Amino acid sequence: MAEYLVEWRMDLEETGPVKAAKEALRVHRDVGSIATIFEVTNKKTGTKFLVDLSEKTCVTVTTANRQMLGLEDRGTGIKSSPAADVGLSNDDQEVKRDAVVARVWSDDKVFDIKFDAVPWLKEASDKDIVDLYQINFSRDYPADKVAKFMTDRDERIACLFKYLEALHGKGGMGFEVEVNADQMLLWLKLNKPRLFDRYNEFRIQEEMRGK
User: Fold this and answer.
1) pLDDT value for 55
2) Domain boundaries, the chain
């Protein structure tokens, strides 16, 4: 479990701070209230989210999308860290040596997340791995499976798919996934050499077809 800082704010005009606080409490407790937007920060990673419970959306707050989300004008004081922009925690800006970096982003670039694909590689079937390198490690259904697998393991990716689900009835929104080929092949060579050898055979066959 992670520790979060959850903030709920609203602008009020009142005669004093106590009355303002009481009015905010009244609004917050009203079951019919539309004041359902929260700013949620993962205290370990510094990643910030804008969660709208009424719309069931959860959007990562980044430097690029703060103004679009209306945070600049609301005076929330949110300062996005570089980690929020690239999807890595502050204490893990350097990708681990044994990691396989992957990236998933929504078509509108509201979400653009880097993550480690090793958990998927450890549990993926041989067929899924072969399918992935047969499409050049990106931008097709075999690559999509990598990100979908991570929804239960990475809160940022879970938010991305909730965001896409919320937009489904509004014309829809797609996403793309790519996996670092060099890092994945190195991981396969060290951990699943049989699949690495199959990849080499596949590349030889592709080269022969190209002649």
Assistant:
1) 56
2) 1-81, 99-211
What are the pLDDT digits (tens) for 148-189?
999 988 888 888 888 787 766 555 678 999 999 889 988 998
d(CA 59, CA 57): 6
pTM as predicted: 0.57
* β-strand partners of 48: 41, 61
Three-state SS for the chain is CCCEEEECCCCCCCCCHHHHHHHHHHHHHCCCCCCCEEEEEECCCCCEEEEECCCCEEEEECCCCCCCCCHHHHCCCCCCCHHHHHCCCHHHCCCCCCCCEEEEEECCCCCEEEEECHHHHHHCCHHHHHHHHHCCCECCHHHHHHHHHHHHCCHHHHHHHHHHHHCHHHCCCCEEEEECHHHHHHHHHHHCHHHHHHHHHHHHHHHHHHC
* Amino acid residing at 95: V
Residues of the chain with pLDDT under 50: 63-96, 211
